[in-house]
Write a structure and sequence with these properties.
With 446 residues, the protein is α/β, with parallel strands linked by helices. An eight-stranded mixed sheet has the order 3-2-1-4-5-6-7-8, with helices on both faces. It binds nicotinamide-adenine-dinucleotide (NAD).
Length: 446
């Protein structure tokens, strides 16, 4: 495989770093919400669902001195959740990062409950139950009946329609998305999701809370997967197609790490578990559109028991007790056989093509988000990517990167991919316009 990823000069790296700082500051500004709009007072918080996310959210609150009630309908799940919180703090204490007294104080501020009625005193409720619209709607109906007037009702959904959740309440103005990332007490990104009727002071309060938690809060409108996961879908899809077309997982990952990612996408899959979202994806397969290329390699790997690190094999193999991905002839033979089965003649794929397909897929989607007003500004997309998705900061974020390469050049490649691969590469009209006018994403006015 050819290595053709250009190295950046120091000046280019410095400019990208300055852009990331600029993007961080800009994200706090919302054109129709004055910076001095009074926020709602948040003294007591209730978090519903004591799973992976709920516990981490409660910790993020405790870390800034906000008491919370962590509520789970299942007493065993509540115990497990509180246990995880305790273990996380204990690990910080043992590593000398937190004083025992601080741990005690924070643990004290998180009270467990199995009664949703305990939301009644909360100024802010953050729902983090399973990703199921019907379940979330039933919780919001209850919140509508129990929560005090003016309480902010937030959902941590990863991509459900927040309007459909707000719509079951009599107070949609108080409903907002608060998309934390996992682990919530560590990850620095918070997507604040503005639904149709969300009140400006609710948004201002959430943006401010995110900042106080030491996170970068970025506003998104409702869209499947919001800003971050919408782009991520394009990134992973192309990585998987590349593997079907002729690259091997370690080649894709090598190109991505050379570009600056700490880990390639296949190593990330193996870390997260190839079975994550498995059932949802399987269910989608039955009704998926048939007019576009699809990829189900990850489901096939999961069905073969290749779950990733936790099963010792996924896109790579892992020696006992090791987290180091090793090439696995077995999975490579499987991938080659799958290409043959699909009638694809495998070919050598350059690192240049790997980066273009993975990054330009995100750029094109980002342009579509901007055009629809899902993301306010290109730099918001960049900061989401650098903060929450491991996009190399020295590359500045996908939209900045595209501006640096030059939009006419980016568009020419996207058009070439469109001609070759079809549907997924339909160029975004905004990108076409900017490229035609000699513009840059950075020139777009908010
Ligand atoms: N895990 C992630 O990486 C991640 C990241 C961002 C957002 N999210 C979103 O956060 C939400 C929670 O995800 P998770 O991974 O923490 O799930 P999880 O399965 O770890 O936890 C969900 C918890 O909700 C509880 N629950 C279910 N029904 C309940 C009810 N009626 N009342 C009270 N509690 C109830 C369950 O007992 C469980 O403890 C989902 O909407 C998910 O899409 C997850």
């Amino acid at each position: 495989m050819t290595t053709d990823i250009p190295t950046l000069t120091n000046a280019e790296r410095e400019r990208a770093a300055a852009h990331v700082e600029f993007a961080r500051r800009e994200a706090a500004k919302i054109p129709d919400i004055p910076a001095d709009l009074p926020t709602r007072q948040v003294r007591r918080v209730a978090v519903i669902g004591a799973g992976t996310m709920g516990g981490g959210i409660a910790m993020s609150l405790a870390n800034i001195g906000l008491a919370s009630t962590l509520i789970d309908a299942d007493p065993a799940a509540l115990d497990r959740g509180l246990g995880r919180v305790r273990a996380n703090y204990a690990s910080s204490v043992s590593r000398g990062r937190l004083a025992q007294s601080a741990m005690d104080e924070r643990l004290e501020s998180i009270r467990g409950s199995v009664d949703i009625g305990d939301v009644k005193d909360a100024d802010l409720v953050i729902e983090a139950v399973f990703e199921d619209l019907g379940l979330k709607q039933s919780i919001f109906r209850q919140l509508d009946a129990i929560a005090k007037p003016g309480a902010i009702l937030a959902t941590n959904t990863s991509g459900l329609d927040v309007d459909a959740i707000a719509g079951v309440t009599q107070r949609p103005q108080d409903v907002v998305g608060a998309h934390f990332f996992s682990p919530a007490h560590v990850m620095k990104l918070l997507e604040v999701v503005r639904a149709d009727k969300t009140a400006p002071d609710v948004i201002a309060t959430l943006m401010d809370l995110g900042r106080r938690m030491g996170k970068v809060a970025v506003l998104s409108r409702i869209y499947p997967g919001f800003i971050g996961n919408a782009l991520f879908r394009n990134y992973t899809r192309e990585a998987h197609f590349l593997v079907e077309d002729g690259a091997l997982p370690h080649e894709v990952d090598a190109a991505l790490t050379r570009f600056g990612y700490a880990m390639g996408i296949f190593a990330v899959h193996d870390l997260a578990g190839n079975d994550v979202g498995h059932q949802t994806r399987k269910a989608q397969m039955a009704t998926r559109p048939t007019d576009r290329r699809w990829n189900d390699l990850i489901m096939k790997l999961a069905d073969l028991g290749r779950l990733g690190q936790k099963s010792g094999a996924g896109w790579y193999r892992y020696d006992e007790g090791s987290r180091t991905p090793q090439r696995d002839p077995e999975v490579e033979a499987f991938i080659i056989e799958e290409s043959r089965r699909m009638g694809i003649t495998r070919r050598e794929i350059s690192e240049d093509e790997i980066i273009k397909r993975c990054v330009y897929g995100m750029v094109n989607e980002g342009a579509k988000l901007l055009q629809q007003g899902i993301a306010l500004r290109p730099s918001d997309i960049d900061i989401v990517y650098v903060t929450g998705y491991g996009f190399p900061a020295h590359q500045g974020g996908p939209m900045y990167y595209a501006d640096r390469i030059g939009l006419p050049e980016v568009l020419a490649d996207i058009k070439r991919f469109h001609a070759e691969y079809g549907y997924w590469w339909e160029p975004a009209p905004l990108l076409e316009r900017l490229a035609r006018e000699g513009g840059r994403f950075a020139d777009l006015q908010v």
